[in-house]
C-alpha cells in the first residue's frame, strides 16, 4: 500500500490527503491537525522510513527564510518520491505577460520561497507552483459576505488562481502517475483581475460591488500591497500535458458557482 507522509497538514494538504486516502493510500502528517509532532525527530524519522512518498507544504520560516522541513530532515528524505507545494510568486513581476516553468525565478518579493523551490528541485522533487488558492471558506464570496471585499483601480492588473480541489487533483495525478521530477504550474485557464472576481461574487450574491478605490483609499496592509506589486499570467500547459491533469474549475466563474 502506498504511504504518503506530509510535512504540514494545511488547507491544500488536507484536500490532497483526502484525495489519496480515497484511493486506498495510507497518510500521516505533521501540523496542528496532523498525527505526528514536527519537533519529535524520532517520530518523524520513523514515519519517513515507512513512507513511499513525501510531500511538504511547509513555507519558509518568516524570520530566517529557511525551509524548516529541509533544515531539519533533508538528510532523511532519501531517494523516494518527493513533492513540494511552492508558489507562482517565485516568478516575480512579468508585467502581465505569461510565465511558464521555464521562466526565470527568484526575481520577485518571494525570494525565500524561490530558494526553497530551487532546493527541492535539486533534490529531485516534483514542485507544484500554486497561484492564489481559493475554496470553501476562502473565496471572494466570503470576502463579500464579510464586508471585506474591495476593488482597486489598477488597469491591466491580472492574477492567476486555482481552486483547492484542483490543487488536490493535480498533485494526486503526479503521485499516482509516472510524473518526472521538475516544476509544474497548477493554475486555472483564465487569469483575471481581482476586480473581475469580486464583481462576479457580488453578482452571484445579488449585491452591489464595492466602489473602485486607490490602494491608499482602501487602506491596504503592506502584505496586501505586495500582492498588487506583481502582475503575471501563469501558464498551466505542462501540467496538462505531462500529468494528464485538467482543472475541474477552469475559471473563477465555475469555481465561485460551485462554492455558492
Automatic annotation (TrEMBL):
InterPro entries found in the cross-reference section: NAD(P)-bd_dom_sf
Protein name according to UniProt: NAD dependent epimerase/dehydratase family protein
Gene3D superfamilies linked to this entry: NAD(P)-binding Rossmann-like Domain (3.40.50.720)
Record keywords: NAD
Taxonomic lineage from the root: Bacteria, Pseudomonadati, Pseudomonadota, Alphaproteobacteria, Sphingomonadales
